[in-house]
Amino acid sequence: MLSQIFILSSKGDRLIHKDFRGETHGAGTDLADVFYRRITSLLGDQAPVFMAHEGRHFVHVRHAGLYFVATATPDASPFALVEFLNRLVTLLRDFCGPLSEKNVGLNFGLVYELLEEMVDYGYIQTTAPEVLRNLVHSEPVATKPFSLLDLGSIGLFGAETQQSRVAPSSAASRPVLPPRGGEQSARNEIFVDVVERLTVVIAANGTPMKVDVQGEIRLKCYLPGSVELRIGLTEEFCVGKSELRGYGTAVRVDECAFHSSVKLDEFESGRVLKVTPNQGELTLMQYQLADDIPAPLPFRLFPSVEQDPPGRLRLYLKLRCDLPPKSQALNVRLQLPVPKGVSSLAQELSSPEQTAELQPGTKSIRWTIPRCQGGSQLSALFKLEVPGLSRASLLELGPANLTFELPTRTCSGLHVRFVRLAGSTPGPPQRWVRYLTHSDSYVLRL
After folding, report:
1. How far is residue 254 from each of residues 60, 64, 244, 292, 431, measured CA to CA in Å?
2. DSSP label of 327
3. Measured between alpha carbons, how far is 12 from 35 in angstroms, rounded to an integer?
4. Does the pLDDT at position 396 exceed 90?
5. In this predicted model, which residue has the larger pLDDT, 320 or 122?
6. Is pLDDT of 350 > 60?
7. Which of 149, 323, 373, 446 is disulfide-compatible with 327, CB 3.0–4.6 A?
8. What is the pTM of this model?
9. Beta carbons within 8 Å of 161's beta carbon, 6+ residues apart
């Protein structure tokens, strides 16, 4: 028998809460908080589907970074509850479209109406979509689809940044065709930039709670005439949970959208984009991948906090770079909020090129690492003077926020196989493919 159902975001925000029997007398928010604290404090990478708390059972499934949780009495069938939650996920996808925190928030009225019709006083009535379509009256609200038109100088996330322009040449230049000619070839160039932004939330136990990659393929063309350009992507590139293409490791994305000028007649068979560009910049494709990236996350943080009375705090941070040994991260900065009463900071860093400072305005430590090689491990010891240090002050510590750039690398695994011209040009053009991944939000909880 169901008591409550709630849907939580990856950060623990309550999106949907439905109390079917009123047995908790307004404690639904407390139960949601209890579940989230327990699920994020587990040591293992895989959280158990069933958990017990004060005579009440929690059953949950996770999809698209969201937690779908049911509370029930001990006499309820756990397998029936798991099946019901999975069917609820399928129904929400059918009625509301792709699951996301934003989409659930926009369609909360429809979600509540579905739950009202599916469950009566804790007893499951129906999960048949053809029956529910005749019972619900709310119209779904669609999220704004990917739009590649009229981007101009606006970046992928609506703000003009250095990364939203062309990736800098220091961040991974690889000529596809050796340069030929003299001054003419300098103005006869094609740049293809694959830029990705990484959003990650990692729990205190090291479990990734949210992983999101948003990327784009940008073309900058400096050809004197209009010729058709053919750009070949990874042959194993899949959109959605498709079958494996080719013989290598699949490169999968959840969503993908193309500019209206891109011809896709060869995309299904050979993963080839065809376009006849004018001089200037054009965003060919945007894509998104959530929760399931093929490569390990680039950074892990292992913190240790010790309280040395009176009023002293020792903070030891160990930052591990899980990139391949031949890769590197640039411009790494870790921002860590500290208790507001901190009066001074002493530091011991593992290498001389690193710097750290206490920023009085934000009451946070800024640890700067110009370059971090893949497979390396860096450490920093901070000694804080905190007059009147208390348990409440310790709650002001963290979470850490990391910013960085990964040249020559994509987290999705997407690569460009070739860049070819179908027509003739006055001179052989020089073609460049450049890759860059940088952090949009990389949060590590202590």
Report:
1. 23, 10, 14, 10, 29
2. -
3. 9
4. no
5. 320
6. yes
7. 323
8. 0.61
9. 155
Burial of 313-331, coded b for 16+ CB within 10 Å and e otherwise, reads bebebebebebeeebbbbe
Q: Output the CA torsion 357→361→363→368 (10° steps).
A: -30
Could you give the CA distance from residue 433 to residue 171 in angstroms, rounded to a whole number?
11
Of the listed ranges 85-89, 175-179, 323-327, the one predicted with least confidence: 175-179
**Residue 162, class by beta-carbon neighbours within 10 Å (0-12 exposed, 13-18 middle, 19+ buried)?**
exposed
3-state secondary structure of 394: helix
Quote the tokens at residue 230.
């053919």
Question: DSSP label at 422?
Answer: S
Tokens 């906090």 appear where? 305
Between the CA of residue 323 and those of 204, 291, 327, 373, what are the distances in Å?
Answer: 21, 18, 6, 8
Strands 377-385 and 312-321: antiparallel
Phi, psi of 75, deg, nearest 5: -85, -5
Segment 351-375 mean pLDDT: 91
Q: State the pLDDT confidence band at 377, using cuts at 50, 70 and 90.
A: very high
| Residues in contact with 183: Cβ distance below 8 Å, sequence separation at least 6, in sequence order | none
Residue 163 has pLDDT above 70, yes or no: no
Report the DSSP pairing between strands 189-202 and 430-444: parallel
Each residue's pLDDT tens digit, 98-123: 888 888 888 888 888 889 889 888 88
Span 153-173, average pLDDT: 38
The residue behind tokens 């009225």 is 109
280 and 221 Cβ atoms separated by less than 8 Å: yes
On the question of pLDDT at 236 being above 90, the answer is no
Burial of 67 (0-12, 13-18, 19+ CB in 10 A): buried
* CA atoms within 13 A of residue 249's CA, in its CB half-sphere: 7
Sequence-ordered list of residues with C-beta below 8 angstroms from that of 268, at least 6 positions apart, any chain = none
CA distances, 158 to each of 97, 194, 343, 356, 403 (Å): 23, 18, 39, 31, 19
**What's the CA gap between 153 and 159, in Å, rounded?**
9
What would the two tokens of residue 34 be?
A: 């209890």
Side chain identity, residue 370: P
Beta strands (DSSP E) in 309-415 are 312-321, 328-337, 344-349, 355-359, 364-373, 377-385, 400-407
